[in-house]
Each structure stands twice: as C-alpha cells, then as structure tokens.
Amino acid sequence: MFRIIAKDVLSQGAGTRIIRIRVSAPAVALKAQAGEFVLVMVTGKGERIPLTIADRDVQEGSITLVFQEAGFSTRLLGQLAEGETLYALTGPLGQATHVPANGKIVLVGGGVGIAELYPVARAFREKNNRVMAVLGARTKDLLVLVDDMRRVAHDFHIVTDDGSCGRQGVVTDVLREILLSDPSFPVYTVGPLPMMKAVAQVARQAGAPAVVSLNSLMVDGTGMCGGCRVTVGGQIRFVCVDGPEFDAHQIDWEELAKRNKVYKEKEAHICRLDSL
Amino acid sequence: MKKWPVKMNERSPEDRAGDFKEVVAGYTPEEALLEASRCLQCRDARCVAGCPVGINIRDFIGAIVRKDFAQACAIIWEKNNFPSICGRVCPAENQCRKACVLTKKGAAFASLEAININFLERFAGDRALSSRPSRVSVSDEDLSRFRVAVVGSGPAGLCCAGELARRGVRVVVFEGLHKPGGVLRYGIPSFRLPQDVVDREISALEDLGVVFRLNTLVGKTLTIEDLFRDGFSSVFLGLGAGTPSFLGIPGESLGNVYSANEFLTRVNLMGAHLFPEYHTPVNVGRRIVVIGGGNTAMDAARVALRLQRGNGISVDVTVLYRRTMEEMPARRLEIEHARQEGVRFEFLTSPTRFLGGTDGSLQSLECLRCRLGEPDARGRRRPQEIPGSVFVLDFDQAIVAIGLTANQVLVRATPGLEVNSNLDITVDPHTMRTSLQGVYAGGDVVGGEGTVIEAMGMAKKAAGSILKCLESLP
Q: What's the whole-model pTM score?
C-alpha cells in the first residue's frame, strides 16, 4: 500500500523542487474527485500533511500528488524514491469542487497551485464550461503542468514576475483585464496565500464571484481537531471537512496568514537539524 | 476492627510531571488481597447497579479474595472486555464506588472508605494481560459465515468487535487514522492510560481474528453502501464525538489558541512532545490557560505542564472554569492529580475575548466573574456572569476544552441515516439500531460525550442485537 509507482521532478533550479509522484492507493483512486485531498505521513514519526489529489488512475489504483519542497515534511517526501512507500495516506478528504454545467470559469493558479488547478480545470471542461486559465509563477522554472493546462483550457495566459515566460507581471494584471471585459466571469483560485488574497480583491472590485481553495495546517484532516479552522463570513469553518473551497470574498485573510505561520520557528528548527 | 482502604501507589508529583509515564502504579497481589478483603460481599450488592455495564463486582472481588485472579478477570469479561482500560479511566466515584454501601448516604461522590473497585478491576485486568487465557467463549452456534464491519476503533468499536469476534463473527474494524484506538489513542494521555495497555487489548482482538483496516475513513474512502456491497451483513458505527466545540468569542482563531482535541492529538497520537524526533510540532506557552472543567481539560492541563517542564519553562498552567470545583465534571482523582502537579484553578470565570498581539498570537484573555444561579436540567448550578466584573489575565497559549459535537463526515455521506437535533445519530435505545437496515450505532456518536464504559455498554447492546439478527439468518 501507498507505494510510489512513479516519480518525476517537474521543476527545479529556482532554489526549490516541484515533484510529482504517483502513489498506489486503490480505494482513494476509486473515490477521488476534483478538489479533494489526501493526508500523508512520510514516516511513522512524520507529520500528517494535506496534499491535493492532482489526478487519479482507477485502473492502476493510483493517485497523483504534486508538491513543492517547501517545508520539512515535503522535503522528506521528496527524498523518497520510486518503489518506496509512504507510511500512511488517508482520503479522499474535503468537499469536491462544485462544478456547474454549461457555464464559464477563469482559473487562476500560482506555482505549485497550478497542479491543484489541473483536475479542477478538467472537471469544468468535462461539464461543458468555457475554461480560461491564468497561470503565474515567480520565474519560468517554477511553472508546472503548463502543457496539460494548455490542452484543457480554451484560453490560456502565462505570467511570470521576471518575464522569463509569457507576460511579465502578476496574475492579477491579466485577471483584471478579463474581468474588465466580462465582470460576470466566476473566478477560481489556488496558489500562495498572498496571490489568492490579491485575486479575491480584484474579483471583488470587479463584482465577480470567486472561490478559493485553501491550504491550511492540518492534523487529522477529518474534522476532529479544528487546527485548520478559518473564519469565513464571521463563522469558524474547518478547511478539512467544510472546505477546502470557500467563497473568497468571505475569508478573513489576515487571520489565515497568521495562523499559517504558527509553527514557523519549529519548522526552521527541524529543517536546520536535519539539514534538509 | 475497621480496615482502611489500601491506597494505590502513585509517583510523586515532582517526579511524574517530568515525563509521560503512568502516574498510578497498580496494586500488588498483596495490596489487592487486602483491599478486596474489605468488601462486605453484600447480599444485595448495590455496586453492580452502579456499573453502566453491570459487572458482577461482588463476585469478582470475591474471586480476588480467594486468590483466583484468573476467575476474577473471567467474571469481569462476562460484561466488560477491557478491565485494564476501564480500571484506569472509569469515573468510579460517580458509578460503582458511589453505589458502594461504604459510601456515606447522600454524598456527592464516593466516600474514601468505599471499596476501590476500579483499582481492583485494573489489577484483575492487568494480571490477565500478562498471562492471557483463551478468551474465546463457547458459542452456541458457529457464526463465522458472517462478516460485520465496525466503523471506528475507539472504546465502542473495540468493544463491539470483541463481542462479535468471541462468537466467531469475522469482524473488520475501519479506522480513519493511522493507528487504532480512537480516543484511547489520541485523547487520553499515556500518563493516565499507557499506550501499551491499548496495544495489548488490540492485539488480543487480533488474536480473536479481528482485522483492523487503518487509514480508511468510512464516509469518504468507503461508504456504508460499499460495505454492504462488499458482503458485510451488518455495520456498527462507533465514530465517537469527533468535532471540537469552540466558545464562539472574538479572537478564538488567534495563533496558539488550540482545541483540546488538537493539542492532545498532536502530543498523544503524533508525538509532538518528542519533537523534533517526531516531526509534528506543538507550541508551548509560558502562561497556559485551559478552558473547561472535564477530564479532557484536566488531561490538557497536565500535558501542558509536562511540555513546559520538558522545554525548561517554569510551570504555569491555569484551568478556567465557569462554575466551582464541586460542579466540575472531571474525575476527582484527575483534579487532585492536576492540583498536586501544580495546575492552578480559576473558578467562576467566564472568558469573553481572546486578545492578540500584532503577530496574531494570543496575549491575554478577557473574562467576567460569575456567580452560581439556579440548577440546570442536569442539576448543576448554572453560572451567571456578573455585569461589569471584567478583568484581563495574561496568557500566551489557550486550550479550549469545552466539549465535542458529533462528527458529520459520515452522516453527510449517508442518505437516510437519521440524526437528532444535536446531530447525534438516532438509535432505538433497546437495540441500538439506526434508521438504516442492518446499521447499528453506539458510544458518543449517539449520546454526546459519555465515558468509556458507557460507550462500551452501548456497543455491547448493539453487538447483542447484531448477534441476534445474525442467528436468525440462514
């Protein structure tokens, strides 16, 4: 169980790697839907970390996970080779993406968030929606799954901070233009928190609805601990069971940003110790 | 001559608060004999009625007096599969010991003189764990052609699995987490219930043929419909009360405000007290407040102070409770242990606002003073906030331990599974059957937050109904 069937590095060079693994998890593969995630423990002493299900293969009984080596546990995961196994994997968790039919959507993704956008893009496409994608990253090396996204989306924009690929700028530059011509375009966004916050702001200014897929710190992932709680419209919601998708206009971004930094010191400490 | 109760040996507060090893040592055989010999062996043994599962307390104590320890355990097993667990965590002072004839009439809790039934139960259970006899009871009918799915591996699930497996039923227990045991694993700290006690009970079930499927969250990984399609004849739901309640006051999502469930899970299940050897972190404040008055609050407070000790921080843990010590639902033993270890108590205090600094972390707690008003439905006097009595206490970490509600993951995924206004699963109290054919439930998922033994009582009843149903099938 939970054997790594295949592994490839999607991006490296920008000081961090984005890695894709295909993991044997037949029961999860059978049920997985766009927007859902799994909780993974790399070793028996590991943390439980949430990772979005980027793809699944029911026949093979596998799911695909894409992660950036950002913290201790993702770097540890990045060290596993093909043929090795994860200690634990539970899922699929969370609420699947709500995908209406015969509509339109603009998907805005940043960095490793593009991998999380991919299954959502396909789900919208399958239901006959007009799919527009705006993908951004700091630099070209951090852009992943561009070809996959290009195939799924009707319209496709790439933006990099340094202009090394596509247009120079940030995703909100493009989004603003799209919403200027059609303010009724619903927005879906996933990526780094500051980006999602900026996307939400642009959408709100344009009067467009926006859904955000949140990444929170989790422990059990099943609604048991409340560690992933976020304030949405003044109410406490749990990202693991009520989310991960919420109305972007209702999120208390400031609080969320601070909650995500609660273990910064501990994280730095363990990374130093293991020189990961 | 009056015989005094035999005190259980406890590690000194100074010593035990420095680690997570068990606080209370078990009786030696000599001590157990001495304590058991105090039992009056009442003809009309009221203690039995005080036990939620009706253990024949008089007879098992009698067996200890005769030094027939195996028989003592066998008598307990007739009603309770897990004496080593219940002997450690049962609130005996509200149950069997309170009913004991040696308790003073009208006392709120068991008197000191009452027989230490729980300690004797633990003794019998621990003896049997170290020399386990065959636990398969003679069954009237071979039920091995049936498979039953048990959802959740906490007290209710384990109990139900045991009851069924002892009759030959092939049981598969589904657990969402990576380790079995439920609240016995993530909730109750090892200084109260050592992990190896839970391990041994679980491996005893495995010896009976029970299979544990971990990392499988029924409601997400599988549905109840899937289970029936896979050939299970019945399903038992022992999901526990899974979702933490919050106070609903401003600032509750500040950094370093935890639910007790999160705080305890990080430590008990994930090993955060051994960080960085274990990778899950937990923050440890210099001034920690635990809000609530139940066993979970006591557990959280005692874990908190052990973490402070382990991190070289001088112990500063305060339990905040809206009522007074007397109304606290926690076991008296836990309150006493917490006190001895250095936990402070701030009674008649109601938190109104968490206040944070610019970094978004907790800095202080605004409170109101309370006085006790009229008794509520459960007979506990209700706290009333005194207007204008605002005061602020400095804390840099808070743990909210005010209770749990039923986890809705499975319910949301199961059309037709009825719940009541508290969102607990509705059951027929006689059979523990839910609104769905072949699906039974027990434990906290049907009744809020009970005790381990109450959960087991319900699970036992459900197992009885399941067996009856299976026996009637071809």
A: 0.95
